[in-house]
């Protein structure tokens, strides 16, 4: 199904709430572009770690964020494959090491400014689904649809552990829980663009929903919004 009206869909939420799975499928179903904004913060963290940059060195990290060339190619099933300087980094971006470091990089105001500029330039395209932490609040404050996904901690830990093992990283549940808790804390308490639902976001608890149910909830919201827009347009003529 292709919604002709090109809208902006913002999906935020904590780790393991199911954002990226939902966002990818929603984009596929609507025929929109999917942008995983966490991948950009992860890419900055990955290059910084590989180059031995001090993760408190805000100026160097902001330059990295500005110059980084993260290329994404979509697979036919809608899953993205990422490259930096021609080398594939899809699994490296989501490794336990980067999970541990990314929030430290993402809390720096100078890094966020550079990344947000890049994302807003992409957002101008319309017809996009973006997922992250601050999309509905900061990156696309006028998005047509804002969704904030949540799930209880145990479910989020289980999902994250499964995702890691699918990528060949075998980590204990206790270790994953520690990482998820730590990242929740850092993302929600930072000074710039903390993780929180936008006042006009629709909050969806995905603890007892399967991925298809989450996707259909969001696609339904998009359809309703598109319908309202179309009838408002007709009425104002
Ligand atoms: O998939 P998961 O929810 O674990 O993480 P992600 O969306 O790839 O984001 C990784 C990290 O990047 C988050 O924990 C945040 O620290 C940061 N991030 C952010 O600050 N703002 C965004 N819009 C997206 C990600």
Structure description:
Helix content is 54%, strand content 15%. The protein is an alpha/beta fold and 237 residues long. It has a five-stranded parallel β-sheet. A three-stranded antiparallel β-sheet has the order 3-4-5. Strand 3 and strand 4 form a beta hairpin. The radius of gyration is 18 Å and the shape is globular. Bound molecules: cytidine-5'-diphosphate.
Using brief descriptors, characterize the structure shown:
single chain, 237 residues, alpha/beta, 5-stranded parallel sheet, 3-stranded antiparallel sheet, binds cytidine-5'-diphosphate
Summarize the structure.
This protein has helices at 19-30, 37-51, 58-67, 90-93, 96-106, 109-123, 135-139, 153-166, 173-189, 211-236, and strands at residues 8-12, 33-36, 70-74, 80-84, 87-88, 128-132, 145-150, 202-205. It has 237 residues and is an alpha/beta fold.
Mind sketching the topology for me?
Blueprint: E1 8-12, H1 19-30, E2 33-36, H2 37-51, H3 58-67, E3 70-74, E4 80-84, E5 87-88, H4 90-93, H5 96-106, H6 109-123, E6 128-132, H7 135-139, E7 145-150, H8 153-166, H9 173-189, E8 202-205, H10 211-236
Parallel strand pairs: 1-6, 1-7, 2-6, 7-8
Antiparallel strand pairs: 3-4, 4-5
The chain binds cytidine-5'-diphosphate.
Cytidine-5'-diphosphate is lined by residues 15, 19-20, 37-38, 41-42, 102-103, 106, 132-135, 183, 187.
């Amino acid at each position: 199904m292709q919604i002709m009206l090109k809208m902006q869909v913002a999906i935020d939420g904590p780790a393991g709430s199911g954002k990226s799975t939902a966002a990818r499928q929603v984009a596929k179903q609507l025929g929109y572009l999917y942008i995983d904004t966490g991948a950009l913060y992860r890419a900055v963290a990955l290059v910084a770690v590989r180059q031995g940059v001090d993760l408190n060195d805000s100026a160097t990290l902001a330059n990295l964020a500005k110059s980084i060339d993260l290329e994404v190619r979509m697979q036919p099933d809608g899953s993205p494959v990422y490259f930096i300087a021609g080398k594939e980094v899809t699994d490296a971006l989501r490794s336990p090491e980067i999970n541990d470091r990314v929030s430290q990089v993402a809390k720096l105001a100078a890094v966020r400014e550079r990344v947000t500029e890049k994302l807003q330039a992409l957002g101008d395209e319309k017809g996009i689904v973006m997922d992250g932490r601050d999309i509905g609040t900061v990156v696309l404050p006028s998005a047509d649809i804002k969704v904030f996904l949540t799930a209880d901690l145990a479910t989020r830990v289980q999902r994250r552990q499964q995702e890691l093992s699918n990528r060949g990283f075998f980590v204990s549940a206790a270790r994953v829980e520690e990482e998820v808790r730590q990242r929740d804390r850092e993302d929600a308490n930072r000074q710039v663009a903390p993780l929180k639902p936008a006042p006009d976001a629709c909050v969806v608890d995905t603890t007892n929903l399967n991925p298809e149910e989450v996707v259909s909830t969001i696609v339904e919201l998009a359809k309703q919004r598109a319908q309202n827009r179309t009838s408002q347009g007709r009425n104002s003529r």
